[in-house]
């Protein structure tokens, strides 16, 4: 169980350049979608250092895919000529919810599969009722037996219209994966997620021959085709990773430049960083943050894209502990996204959680403390607190953070964080 020892300082700002990795939440659906293709799919800019990507590789191999990893070039070549096994085991879903995306792909290609029902996680229950309601609308039948969803579309996916009751990122991707090979059928999906990662999947599928059309605000129409052809695709930059490192400069009065990221994927988040006093410069594929002045307070609500991303909220909460005055954050996506708050309070932060709202009274100093991480984004939020606190912090269970951040330790060292690993 790896720990990070961080010696922070309230006066030393981080400085440096970070090359943003490919987006974890883009590459996972892209990898699952490879099941649909007749031949080799090549993915570039893959965040191979993120453990969830390794889990998805193992999952695909367990189904019979051939996966070639070109580590130095950050390339995955996935060959799916072989008939796949149709069982997605619990051991893959339990640590990586995105394994549920294999269900849509297997259903789309083979019209049936058995997928373990994902458990909850520290963010709260992670139901897939919308996914299943969508599949049902497209002529699928399913039952739950011994923790596995056994799903089948006896006469294939049929045309129809499904509207998501609320925006669901992997729900949207799953329905698209199930629909693109429904040859001759027309499937309309509304109230879809328009997160950049979902749009990257749609772009990839279209370039492989899928017929997916935007027919209105958050609505697409899919004309099923017979087959898709494998091709090359560059994964978009990870906007959550980019925001995380920008927050490192924001909380420590530092200066960071992030390359290989599209600022258009962080419009709302960059507006908030500017509002609290950070100087932001962007060009088409980089973002620079310089923090010279004292931080200001703010109030915000998380929301589906293009709103403020729930995944960015824990890191902003950490930054706001240094903004003199009262800030308020309302989390609207998950029931339990404030796992970093009690750990930051151990460092002296003043955060009070009432239901889905965090009330933060910012102040000047935090002090190092022993902390325990409990989920992916809270890990980074705690690291932010530790780097801005006076003294040493020991953060346990950092493996949660290694699920979604490639090169976390090396990147933190590179920007000047005084960090050591401790087993
Ligand atoms: C995706 O999770 C991301 N994961 C999450 O990132 C992200 O926080 C989340 O979207 C919201 O943006 C991946 O893309 C792999 P949802 P997902 O379905 O798809 C409820 C990270 O940090 N809901 O958009 O699982 C659900 O409980 C991770 O990288 C249902 O009720 O989230 C939640 O309250 C954490 N029934 C809300 O909808 C369903 O069938 C949004 O969930 C599906 C979802």
Task: Explain the layout of strands and helices.
Layout: E1 3-8, E2 15-19, H1 24-33, E3 41-44, H2 51-63, E4 66-70, E5 75-79, E6 87-88, H3 90-93, H4 101-110, E7 112-116, H5 129-137, E8 141-145, E9 148-152, E10 160-163, H6 169-179, E11 186-190, H7 196-207, E12 211-216, E13 219-223, E14 232-234, H8 239-252, E15 255-259, H9 267-275, E16 279-283, E17 286-290, E18 299-301, H10 313-320, E19 325-330, H11 340-346, E20 350-354, E21 357-362, E22 370-372, H12 376-388, E23 391-396, H13 399-402, H14 408-414, E24 418-422
Parallel strand pairs: 2-15, 3-14, 6-7, 10-11, 18-19, 22-23
Antiparallel strand pairs: 1-23, 1-24, 3-5, 4-5, 7-9, 8-9, 11-13, 12-13, 15-17, 16-17, 19-21, 20-21
Helix pairs in contact: 1-2, 1-7, 4-6, 5-6, 8-10, 8-12, 10-12, 11-12
Bound molecules: ligand EPZ.
Task: Tell me, rounded to a whole number, the average pLDDT.
Answer: 96
- Care to count the β-strands? 24
Shape: elongated
The stretches of 5 or more residues where confidence is low (pLDDT under 50) are: none
Radius of gyration equals 22 Å
Please give the order of strands in the largest beta sheet.
22-23-1-24
- SS summary, helix count: 14
Distinct small-molecule ligands in the complex? ligand EPZ
Cα separation of the termini: 6 Å
β content, as a range?
Answer: 25-35%
Biggest beta-sheet profile: 4 strands, mixed
Structural class: alpha/beta
Helicity, in percent?
25-40%
């Amino acid at each position: 169980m790896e720990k990070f020892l961080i010696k922070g300082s309230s006066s030393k700002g981080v400085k440096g350049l970070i090359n943003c990795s490919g987006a974890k939440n883009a590459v996972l659906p892209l990898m699952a979608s490879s099941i649909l293709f007749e031949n080799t799919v090549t993915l570039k800019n893959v965040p191979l250092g993120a453990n969830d990507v390794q889990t998805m590789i193992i999952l695909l191999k367990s189904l019979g895919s051939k996966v070639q990893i070109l580590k130095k070039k950050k390339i995955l070549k996935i060959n799916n000529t072989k008939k796949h096994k149709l069982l997605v085991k619990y051991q893959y879903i339990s640590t990586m919810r995105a394994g549920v995306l294999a269900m849509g792909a297997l259903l789309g290609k083979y019209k049936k599969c058995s997928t373990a029902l994902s458990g909850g996680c520290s963010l709260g229950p992670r139901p897939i009722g919308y996914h299943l309601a969508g599949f049902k609308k497209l002529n699928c039948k399913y039952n739950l037996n011994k923790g596995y969803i056994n799903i089948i579309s006896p006469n294939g996916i049929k045309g129809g219209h499904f509207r998501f009751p609320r925006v669901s990122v992997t729900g949207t991707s799953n329905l698209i994966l199930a629909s693109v090979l429904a040859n001759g059928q027309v499937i309309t999906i509304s109230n879809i997620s328009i997160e950049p990662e979902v749009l990257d999947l749609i772009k990839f599928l279209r370039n492989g021959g899928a017929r997916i059309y935007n027919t209105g605000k958050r609505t697409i129409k899919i004309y099923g085709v017979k087959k898709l052809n494998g091709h090359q695709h560059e994964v978009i930059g990870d906007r959550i990773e980019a925001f995380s490192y920008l927050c490192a400069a924001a909380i420590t009065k530092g200066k960071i430049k992030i390359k290989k990221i599209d600022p258009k994927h962080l419009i709302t988040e960059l507006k908030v960083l500017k509002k609290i006093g950070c100087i932001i410069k962007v060009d088409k594929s980089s973002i620079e943050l310089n923090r010279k002045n004292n931080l200001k307070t703010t109030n915000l609500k998380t929301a589906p894209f293009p709103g403020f991303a729930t995944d960015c909220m824990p890191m902003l909460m950490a930054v706001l502990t240094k903004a003199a005055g009262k800030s308020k954050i309302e989390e609207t996506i998950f029931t339990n996204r404030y796992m970093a708050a009690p750990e930051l309070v151990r460092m002296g932060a003043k955060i009070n959680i009432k239901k889905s709202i965090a009330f933060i009274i910012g102040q000047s100093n935090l002090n190092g403390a022993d902390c325990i991480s409990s989920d992916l984004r809270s890990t980074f939020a705690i690291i932010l607190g530790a780097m801005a606190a006076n003294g040493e912090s020991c953060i346990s269970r950092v493996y949660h953070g290694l699920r979604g951040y490639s090169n976390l330790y090396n990147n933190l060292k590179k920007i000047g964080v005084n960090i050591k690993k401790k087993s």
